[in-house]
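ok so for the tutorial part 2 we go from a plain amino acid sequence to predicted structure tokens. step 1 is just haveing the sequence, like this:
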Amino acid sequence: MTKKREVKVSVCEIGGAKRPAGRKSNRNAFYRHKGDMAWCGVRDEPYKTEEGAWSGIIRRVLVGGRGESAKFHVRYFEIEAGGNSSLERHRHEHVVICVKGEGIVRTGKTKKRMAFMDTVYIAPDTVHQLMNPSERPFGFLCIVNARRDRPKVLG
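step 2 — the prediction. this is what the tokens look like for a chain of 155 residues:
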């Protein structure tokens, strides 16, 4: 009988759990909130890698892209004052929950102001955009399907 070598994982993970060497996916994880919508073990990423009609926005991936088997991803986005996401549409649906500041969500031709804990469901193939006309950052959680199509960016 061979003994499995154990590897210690990040202190951000539940109970400092151990996992067998070589196993890189689908483990429990706990990301401690450090304040101001930052989490231990979660880094800032660019909103998109390509240039576009968007500005002043960062992304922090909380669940998804680390080998989890979840059928959804949870990301935090923050738009600085005067910034906006791209105007786009895609076949997948998503949910947006405002957790910091205030902003505006455009769905189709409708614009609504979002404030703390306001939630919007964006149906598949809906033209949408998030904007921050205020002077404080606008932060929101975005929950999407793990398997999804690439957005079609609109003018």
